[in-house]
Amino acid sequence: MIITRSWIDEWIDLDGITTEDIAKTFNAIGLEVDRIKSYEVPKKIVIGKVLECEKHPDADKLNICRVDIGTSIRQIVCGASNVRAGLDVAVATIGAVMPSGMIIKPVKLRGVDSEGMICSASEIGLEDCQDGIIELDESIGSYDLGQELQTIATLNDDLIEIELTANRGDCLSIRGVARDLSAAYDRPLKESKIHEDEDKSVGIGRILSLSHELDLSVNLRYKALDLKALRLPFIVRLRLAQIQEVRESDIEALMLYATQSSGVILRSYPHKFFCEEDAVMAKIELKKDKRGYASIMSSEKASTIGIIQEDISKVDFSEGCVLIEASYIPPDVISKKMQESKVVSGPMYYRTSRGSEPELNQGLNFCLNLIEANSDSSLYGGNIELCDNYEDKIVSVSKKEIDNIIGAKVDKVTITKILRNLGFDTSKSSLDNFVISVPRFRHDISHKQDIVEEIVRMVGIDNIESKPFVFAEKSKLEDDYFEYKKRSVYRHKAAQSGFFETLSFVFDERKVLESYGFETIDARLEILNPIVNTLDTLRTTLMTGLLKAASLNVKNGISSVRLFEIGSVFNSQREESLKMSMLFSGDTTKENLSNLGRPKKVDFAYFTQKVSDIIGEFELSKYETKHKLSHLYQSATIIQNGEVVGELFRVHPSVEKSYGLEASFICELEFEKLFYALKIAKNISKYQASFRDLSIIMPKDLSYEKVKSVIEDSATKELVRFYPVDRYSDEELGSNMSLSLRFVLQSDEKTLEEQDLVLAMDSILLALKDELNIGLR
After folding, report:
1. For 541-560, what is the mean pLDDT?
2. What is the reported pTM?
3. Residue 127: CA atoms inside 13 Å, Cβ hemisphere, count?
4. Which of 376, 477, 502, 757 could form a disulfide with 228 if both were Cys (CB 3.0 to 4.6 A apart)?
């Protein structure tokens, strides 16, 4: 947001306050100053009046001018196309040193003496705001012929650029910024009013009618005028150049200037655009267009409220009947609609999506005063308006709560002044409680903490007395510590296992999540103003972020990508939880002599072992994922301590290809379910362990879970663990297969003898025969 010192002086009296002090105040109240630029017109450049202007006899593009500079009349040769008799101009007199370093001297141009130079804006150090020379007028303030431009405050101005956060749409205007300064300096705002002679003016109702659909959340206000001889003031041209804005016509430039000043979205339309052929009455319709946007309609669309005005509905004449429209639409409504169905937007969309000024009358008054002062236009009486039903947000907070949150006592009178100067209504407050009505332009205020933040901004954090912290000793080993410790332990385990930690935004792209079948945030709870379109929702999984990171690593020449992340994810109701995800893609090792430069690719077993190195022992169970990232035949749930804690799978080949990856595996775990507790020491047998392998014939369609369950139920106390080591099938076995299992047996009391091992194996084989009808191969 760009302001100038003289521009903001039109809305609040800052007499006695330096620009440096204003910049410090901006920083103190949360409006960070990005840069300050000072304009200073050189000495010996004065105001002159062109008395005569004649063509140069020996040059088609030169004019010989007689210019009154107050103390004398000078002859000056000028080549500007817009020079003419009657103009007030900027004249660089003899001896003036221009910003470019050029010194003005008496010269002869094509044989004609020239004593000075009639200047353009850029030649005297101002922004280039006009083709040719400056055409001065009273918009810069009162002046006399011969007065140096260096003494005119509006030309020797200070420009301040402010960085605004996305929630401060109320400061996207000069009036909005002045409102914050009003609270900071306790000085009143200046408001503009228009005085209509209702007896002499024709009522607007004779030439305009408005019809509308219900429940569009739109406020409109129309005024009408007969535009005639509009002259765009020099100060308007200069200030629009300072904020780097240009418009094709004077009326459009004036609308933009009034919008920038007041914060109200203003547009101008030709009256005849809304009239049927030869009709006097213009008929405006407010209704939804094909995409559901609130739009101004006639036989053709004129504009989309808060989005864009169509070129065919813009004023392209200098004289005629013009309709001036002031509009307001809530920022959450327009932003949400744009997310649902994007359309081409105009320059005003940024303002409306952040929150424009809803007080339409003051913006219209400012605009019409400007037109009346700089044209021969006549105004129609009255106005036509449409207002939506809006109830002010009410926030209640006690004086005690305010003091407790701030940590210091702030005088109640000071609090009341701050809130009122910021536009809040405190009239319903009682002795010890504030009942605050939040103005509509502050859509970012909804809680008592927001109110306290406004008070702290204006009081100034440096003006709040510092107090020492009071520490009361108590146990530091609370839940937060153990949560931190658990997270730290798993991060270090992952790093020790060769994985690198990656960090990604808590935001993701909704379209990507939906394409892979992941749960997404409920539309009613979706982000209204995302940073960018590719980060337009809260993430519901960490896996898409890992895939993007892996893809970037591969593009940088990394052949073995091992990544992990522990971070927050959200369900459809925006409920937060913590997950841990790991990804392994490509080679298991680097190229070296031992593998002849051909390292193995990661496979299911290798990745499973890596995950086990990090989270400890677990079991896998056959599982079909609900999303589309996984391979159809290589996915499983991870079970730890009898509870499902996550999933592990190979990435689907089509997804691998889309991200430019080789064989890749991912697992995602619910972090809260991962084991973390005090380790309990167990006795370890000092006797030798024994191993036995059994190969059993079993149907192919019999699940390993059933076999495992029977073995566990029938095992003797000597069985430490068992696991499959091989699976075999051929034509002779038909619908059966051979499954080889390895058993580890050990006793705490003695070295097991052959007889002990046979008894242990026999009990298992008997149970398999009785319950599953399977046995040895």
Report:
1. 94
2. 0.61
3. 21
4. 376
